Amino acid sequence: MELRYTPEEVAFRDELRQVFQSKIPAEIRRKVSEGRHLEREDIATAHRILHAEGLATPNWPVQWGGKDWTPVQRYIYTEEIQRNAVPMPLSFNVAMVGPVIANFASEEQKKRFLPATASLDIWWAQGFSEPGAGSDLASLKTSARREGDTYIVNGQKTWTTLGQHADWIFLLVRTDPAAKKQQGISFLLVDMKTPGITVRPIITIDGAHEVNEVFFDEVKVPVGNLVGEENKGWDYAKFLLSNERTNIARIGLSKEKLARVKERAKETPAGDGTLWDDPDFRRRVAIAEIELKALEITQMRVVAAQRSRAADKPDPNSSILKIKGSELQQMATELMVTVAGPYAAPMPSHSHNEPPVGPDWADAVAPQFFNFRKTSIYGGSNEIQRNIIAKAFLGL
Ligand SMILES: Cc1cc2nc3c(=O)[nH]c(=O)nc-3n(C[C@H](O)[C@H](O)[C@H](O)COP(=O)(O)OP(=O)(O)OC[C@H]3O[C@@H](n4cnc5c(N)ncnc54)[C@H](O)[C@@H]3O)c2cc1C
Predict the structure, then answer these.
(1) Statement: the pTM of the whole predicted model exceeds 0.85
(2) Is 244 considered catalytic here?
(3) Which parts of the sequence belong to the Acyl-CoA dehydrogenase/oxidase C-terminal domain (predicted)?
(4) Burial level of 60, CB count in 10 A (0-12/13-18/19+)?
(5) Same domain for 370 and 256
(6) Which phi and psi (to 5°) does residue 98 adopt?
(7) pLDDT for 78-113, tens place per residue?
(8) CA 58, 385, 322, 41: dihedral to nearest 10 degrees?
(9) Pocket test residue of 156, 159, 169, 212 for ligand 1, highest count of atoms within 8 A of CB
């Protein structure tokens, strides 16, 4: 197992770092670093710059704009993008629907959708979860009944992240109500402007509009928007979810956050010195850093194993990375709340039109702490990941 980067890999990392630091506007990187909410334009600007640099879709097939990188180079890319506080290219496009279209759609669909998906001319949303179908996704009820060349879609999706910005949505729908639950599902691409679609915001505990409910009432979708075969959607969904969980540890992001925690703690008065002089606080940071180092080494072990494995097969180790990675992201936001102390107000000041009471950076601290509770739920909850580990490693 080789955990150190080769000189070529170090050069590759430095080149990426240079692009991320020089091309992405400092204001957008500042927002990411401080954990502020990004506007649609921030996400789109960063995505389009990365696309222009050939860095938005490295994991796609080369023919469609992907990179012939090694697993280590792919790891370095993710680590550096996060470490440099650059917004990730929109995951619904890049990590989810793009690879599904590239692998399972018709040539015509590939030509129609892939270029616009890579460049973000189409903004996609993920329409999988429903009330009553989250962890047990195969219980989904949204139906698509075929009438000639059209599917008629009825039902409800929920937790649809950034659905308020979406041009299109990829849906899992039930096309055969009589089949066993995994076997009657299809994967449909739906234009959000189609009559019969209603998007309703869900305002989360941090006061943000990040997720939505989406309702479908007799929505007409051309049969040509079906991906792959009818009733085979579950296979495509499994493929998509295994991509979603790749790099879910977000080690670069936690490193960036812990670096900010230390920086701010050194500026925060406490007792006769600063918070950084407090041994108990330093102990908490040390625990987080040690855990993060251990996670990084685990991640590198997974990457090293991939060096010798040709196919990108889903790896049950990604469940360990998901659990530990999400816990560490949450731990970093908890430490930042300690640093901000009484200035960690639960809502950002702009939400009630008042100037921040404390330092400007502290304004986003508590909202992000609340927001990051999501990391142990989405992408397959941590309890579900534990079930996967129990099956794969313990044989339970
Ligand atoms: C911020 C956020 C954004 C999201 N964005 C999207 C999106 O864009 N598109 C989309 O389709 N979905 C999205 N989701 C949905 C997400 O995938 C689901 O929330 C997740 O799969 C959990 O499903 P659920 O919320 O229905 O909870 P449930 O499945 O009802 O689970 C409730 C609790 O029970 C536990 N549990 C459930 N089953 C088991 C079991 N078998 N063993 C042990 N424990 C179990 C869970 O871990 C959880 O703690 C998002 C969720 C969040 C929080």
Answers:
(1) yes
(2) yes
(3) 231-393
(4) buried
(5) yes
(6) -55, -55
(7) 999 999 999 999 999 999 999 999 999 999 999 999
(8) 60
(9) 159
Cα distance from N-terminal residue to C-terminal residue, the chain: 29
Provide the 10 A C-beta neighbour count for residue 325.
Answer: 25
Q: Which residues contact 44 (CB under 8 A, 6 or more apart)?
A: 120, 123
Tell me: do 171 and 261 sit in the same domain: no
Give the CATH number, domain containing residue 81: 1.10.540.10
Domain count, the chain: 3
Question: In angstroms, rounded to a whole number, what is the distance separating the alpha carbons of residues 226 and 54?
Answer: 29
Distance CA 60, CA 56 (A): 9
Secondary structure of residue 215 in the 3-state scheme: strand
pLDDT digits (tens, 9 = 90+) for 191-209: 999 999 999 999 999 889 9
Q: Whose CA is nearest to atom 30 of ligand 1?
A: 134
Tell me the residue length of the chain.
Answer: 396
In-domain check, residue 115: no
Q: Kindly give the number of the ligand 1 atom that is closest to the alpha carbon of 371.
A: 1
How does pLDDT run across 61-77, given as a tens digit for each residue?
999 999 999 988 998 99
Do residue 222 and residue 285 come from a single domain? no
